[in-house]
Amino acid sequence: MSLLESLTSGQNLVLALVYGGIYGLLAVGIVLVYRGSRVLNFAQGEVGTVGLFVAYFLITKQGLPWWVGALGAIATAVAIGLLFERFVVRTMVSATRLSVAVATVGLLLFLLAVEFRFAGESPRTVRGPIDGNGLTLGGVVVSPTQILSLVVTIAVGLGLTLLLRKTDFGLGVLAAADDPTAVRLVGVRLSRVSAFTWGAGAAISALAVLLIEPTIGVFTPGFASELFVKGLAAALVGGLTSLTGAFAGGLIVGLVEIQVGSLTLTSTVPGIPTLSIFALILAVLLIRPAGLFGRAVASA
Amino acid sequence: MRRHIRQRIGVGAASLMLVLTACSGAKAPQDAASDGSGDSELQADVAPGVEGAESAAPGSLAPGATTAPGSAAGAPAGSTGPGKSGGTSAGGSNGSSTGGTTGATTGGSRPGTAPGSSNQANLFAGALNTRGITSKEITICGHAALTYGPAFNATKDDFNVYYSAVNDAGGIFGRKIEATYENDDYKPATAIQAAEACKAKNPFMILGGIGFDQIPGVRNWAEQNKELYIHHIATDRDASSKQYSYTTQPSVEAVGRAFGELTVSKFKTKKVGILYRSSEFWEPGFDAFQSVAKKRGLNVVLSVPVTQNQANYTQALLQLKNAGAEVVWGWENTLALTQMVKQAKAQNYSPQWVAFPFNLTSQTLENDALTPPMIGLASWPGYSKGDYSGTFASYAADMKEFEIQYAKYRPGTDIEGVAGDLLWLNWVEQKRVVEMLRACGPQCTRNGFVGMLANGYRKTVGPTCALDFSGGRNNGSGNLVNEMETYRSPSGKVNWRSTSRCRKTFL
């Protein structure tokens, strides 16, 4: 396929939109935690995967409605987020943000170990929230769940943006990350802000993974870890401080991946689409370190 | 099968460095047919005078038999085998029986020649010749992707049921098999660490479980460390020079060629697409398939390489669909294959899938694995708990024995579920290994064992296909494979069943 054919292919554009939406949804959670704590949460995807196992148990094994499973998944993820915040993040309040980020790697490894121990590698499936054949656009069947995930991504991004910009609590969340001392002095409870950030981030992770799983089809432990890398790429490209940028970054990453994948589909050199994403990150960071929609922040 | 998590973490770790940096500034031979005579593999052999350090006895676990979801492929060779143990096995097996079908030792060249004869190899000097074998015990260690054991609700102990039964029946010439396992995590580097850990146990031999990617590295390691290594499916590349490694399995190349022949035989007039793992240890199989396809005029419309743990195959599948591929050969591990089929269905694309047959895939996919039924091939015979009809009938006695022994030793193991066929292939391969050890004789040593194989050990131990090392260390299977298809079993599970057994060619 030539470059022009690839760029104008309706199939590629639809795929880019579908996968971009997935990456964007993951990126929103990453950005939320980053904005609230200045920490990159490397366990962001895996927190959701643990929730997905709960959803599997409730929906697939117990035959309960999807929304019940989703609530169970989100509740589990939130619990993990809050526990991590309470017993790790809060105790590292004076540590560098880099140290806290490394602690999230520990959480990631711990969650993987738990998944392997209690669930194993066997592939599992969880049905999507909406049944049906979906729409065929550009030769691509877009499932109702994929459409829903795009809507949810936009809704969550907008909702959080409004919350953070238009409410006192939201402003407190943003301010807490920039200047926690000042926030404390004006009477905002930093513990509540921190708990919100990590709990909400975990909830978004669970929601994202629940909406992504039907697209991939089956999941195993570590399901979201690889997707997380692309979500992180989206967050970096869009700007770690911008929820709007997270969505836009997701679309850009999806577009690059699909276009490069199309052009190199039969190449015997493996992983070119993934390499192209890393190249994109490097390029953005070199040209605009804060990301396309982000703003520079002082490092901790 | 995938390889999964750890590599995912690896990817994550790589990106971690990148991101942290960024952030700090502001990521068959037809010879067989079990006779069901009931020769038993479980009966004790009488160990004539095996005492002390001279005795030796190999032991072991089925190569390939271990865990491995997401893993790829292959496993024990299977086939039926008429007969009784044949004549030349020194000390041979025979046995009582518990329903199994032990095949005949067909003479080969001096199978089972006892140590001390001219057939001994000269690989192990001094005490190393009798390492891992005493008058009471044979020590075996296997590396396998134990990480994935829980996937099948199976533990290490679940893989030792056959040995437990043999041991309780008196062992091999009075020697009990002591088999342990080290986790290779389905990763090449970890596999070498696992082999090192095995070596520390001073085993008679080291066994290599399923995994195209781990075995070549361990094979090199075994050569350097002078360790006897019996392994599962691996590429032929660089194998011919290895003196310490043997396999009872067809090579990656042989399996790829067999898939090519199977596809030609069934879908010569169809448009064929391929999704294959882009990896040095998988591509030889793809190349072999392509070679057959080209020679036989198969219409391969598109071949798309995929990476390990790619997860998202929709773009590749849509291209195959656009190219009109009616048949798709999925040269990937179980997890990837399952994702491929699921994602193809999501795109209303239902080609004829040709792939490795694991119940893990078919039970996960359920109806999606039946529309249309998938076909595949493997060196082990299919297993579907409680179904003794059709091609299962030829080895129903073995299946029943398997079920009886699991009920006895590991009653909690779910052999009806995704673990069933893996434990089965482990079981049938262990039968074969036990027969090899018996054939080695009561005075077996490591040199004696290797000498026996090197001199063309041949035997059919049902229900696996004939084992014949006359073709060389890396061709014990004789490239015999079983053709399979998915079907809904009487239990309601979607499983694989054999449709033809122990085929050397499909053309």
Helical content class of chain B: 25-40%
Q: Which strands sit side by side, in order, in the main sheet of chain A? A: 1-2
Please report the total strand number of chain A as a whole number.
2
Q: Give the amount of beta strand of chain B, in percent.
A: 5-15%
Strand content of chain A: under 5%
Q: SS-based structural class of chain A?
A: mainly alpha
The largest sheet of chain B is:
7 strands, mixed
Low-confidence runs of chain B: 1-41, 44-117
Question: Explain this structure to me?
Answer:
The complex is a heterodimer of chains A (300) and B (507). By secondary structure, chain A is mostly helical. Chain A is built from twelve helices and two strands; from the N terminus they run αααααββααααααα. Chain A has helices at residues 3-8, 10-37, 44-61, 66-89, 97-118, 144-166, 168-178, 180-185, 190-216, 223-238, 243-263, 272-287; strands spanning 135-137, 140-142. A two-stranded antiparallel ribbon of chain A has the order 1-2. In chain A, β1 (135-137) and β2 form a beta hairpin. In chain A, α2 runs antiparallel to α9 and α10 (223-238) packs parallel to α12. Chain A is globular. The mean pLDDT of chain A is 89. Chain B is an alpha/beta fold and 507 residues long. Chain B has helices spanning 5-25, 161-168, 188-199, 215-225, 252-267, 283-296, 314-322, 334-346, 359-365, 396-409, 420-440, 446-454; strands at residues 137-144, 176-183, 205-208, 229-231, 245-247, 271-277, 299-306, 327-331, 352-355, 375-378, 458-459, 467-468, 481-488, 494-503. Chain B has a seven-stranded mixed beta sheet with strand order 7-6-8-9-10-13-14, sandwiched between helices. In chain B, strands 2-1-3-4-5 form a five-stranded parallel beta sheet, sandwiched between helices. Chain B is built from twelve helices and 14 strands. At the A-B interface, α2, α5, α9, α10 and α11 of A face α1, β7, α7 and α8 of B.
